[in-house]
Design goal:
Distance between the termini: 16 Å
Oligomer: single chain
Structural class: mainly alpha
Order of helices and strands: HHHH
Radius of gyration: 14 Å
Shape: elongated
Helix content: over 70%
Largest sheet: none
Strand content: under 5%
Length: 74
């Protein structure tokens, strides 16, 4: 149960949120349906999608490093 509140669990959750929202932003029908609102929980998804598309190199490198850490380092 201690793994739920760890920093690496929070980082994995944040990276998955950013990657998922950036992927959903690339799908035209989902973009207008889910990511058009900029307030509330959908606003958080919209901001995560913007971060994922603008910093795609940094986000992908972070995902690779986190995957290596989770699979090998832990």
């Amino acid at each position: 149960m201690a793994g739920v509140y760890s920093l690496d669990g929070l980082l994995v959750f944040g990276l998955l949120l950013v990657c998922t929202c950036a992927y959903l932003r690339k799908v035209p029908r989902l973009r207008t349906w889910l990511l058009s609102e900029r307030r509330g929980i959908w606003g958080v998804c919209h901001k995560a999608a913007v971060i994922g598309t603008r910093l795609h190199v940094a986000v992908s490198m972070s995902c690779l490093l986190m995957a290596f850490y989770v699979l090998v380092g832990k």
